[in-house]
Amino acid sequence: MTTPPPPPGAERTDGSSVRIGALVPLTRPGWVEAGQHLLAGLELAVREVNDAGGIVGRPLELVVRDTAADPRRAAAAVDELARLGVAALAGEYHSVVARTAATRADALGLPFLCSSAVLDTLTEQPTEWVARLAPAQSHGWRIYADFLLGAGHSRIAVAADSSVYWTSGARILRDRLAPRGGTVIELDMRALTPAAVCDALVDSRATALLLLVGHPEPAVSIVKSVRHDRRLAEITIGAPAGQPEFAEWATLLGDDSAAIPFLRYLPERLSPLGARVETALRERLAQAPSFVAFEGYDTIAVLADVLRSRGEDRARTAESWPHVAVEGTRGRIQFSRTPGINVWQWAWPPVQVVDRDPAEPDRFRILHAG
């Protein structure tokens, strides 16, 4: 069952259900389609847990709060959910928002299983309260850098917005590419129009352009400008953050949406559990589920397992992270301490570099796996 944001004073207080707070971007400027997929996965898993008897006979309830990609809104939601007595927090897609939520959850002693955000530094200091399913940005983006080198790209331009997430991504790429003879040329999107990006690409002699910018804008406008500039007919456009994963990308860009490699966190072949969940998610979403939907499902699978074995005590939940061993949709989920990562981390989910097939943009091609 899912609880939408209610009016003040309308929360359930009878204690009949075990409640999990869910942080999801459901309105702009949040990435709404990503939020919808994340929520679909969370809701499907909650339904299946309840169909199987709930948490020791009690129903599992999702208390959803829309973060709208706003860190301040997320912090307020964490405070509210903690007061409401949720057993744990789940979700979030945007890394900068997840970092704020994780920091607040740590301060409050509220277990938080982060579903989809990848920023390495979710918290400034090591914490026992936060665990994460998504791979750290440094892990996935290094794999993406290896893909670029393997494809013959050594002069790579990045069209970058100003945020800790994009700055971190550019640094990871530069650190991975430089020792292997690669060069990263940064294009500051605070100062350049999409047309000016094209001129800068010609001047830089880059063979690849990476979109380290928001979706849909300015990413869509940059793609259109580059695709329609005859001087750049041979350049590769990439999007390591995964913008082309969602159907809205293909809708907005049509044929221009294809052949733009991005990171996706799925195995080459789904397990029987993954295949069953994919079918159910496809029915729920009326479209192919993204990897984010699987992350949502796996989040609840882990939390339900912990709550069944450890109960609702928040401290006991946090103590359970290193003991988790749950079969998820994309492999066996276990958490460990990873150098440079201050939260409990699943090391590692499967990582692919994929793109949309130019001959059939609704079909994805696996280009590289790490």
Description:
It is globular and about 65 Å long. Helix 1 packs across helix 9, helix 1 (32-51) packs parallel to helix 10 (291-310) and helix 2 packs parallel to helix 3 (95-108). It is built from eleven helices and 17 strands. The protein is α/β, with parallel strands linked by helices and 370 residues long.
Topology, pairings included?
Elements: E1 2-3, E2 18-24, H1 32-51, E3 60-66, H2 71-84, E4 88-91, H3 95-108, E5 112-114, E6 130-132, H4 137-150, E7 155-160, H5 164-177, E8 183-188, H6 194-204, E9 208-212, H7 219-227, E10 236-238, H8 247-253, E11 262-264, H9 272-285, H10 291-310, H11 314-319, E12 326-328, E13 331-333, E14 335-336, E15 344-346, E16 352-357, E17 360-369
Strand and helix order:
EEHEHEHEEHEHEHEHEHEHHHEEEEEE
Largest sheet properties: 8 strands, mixed
Numbering strands along the chain, what is their spatial order in the largest sheet? 1-3-2-4-5-6-15-14
pLDDT averaged over residues: 95
Overall geometric form: globular
Question: What is the share of helical residues?
Answer: 25-40%
Number of strands: 17
Provide a count of the helices.
11
Task: Name the structural class.
Answer: alpha/beta
| Residue runs with pLDDT of under 50 for 5 or more positions | 1-14
User: Per DSSP, what share of the residues sits in E-state strands of 2 or more residues?
Assistant: 15-25%
Based on CA atoms alone, the radius of gyration comes out at: 20 Å
Q: Determine the N-to-C terminus distance.
A: 36 Å
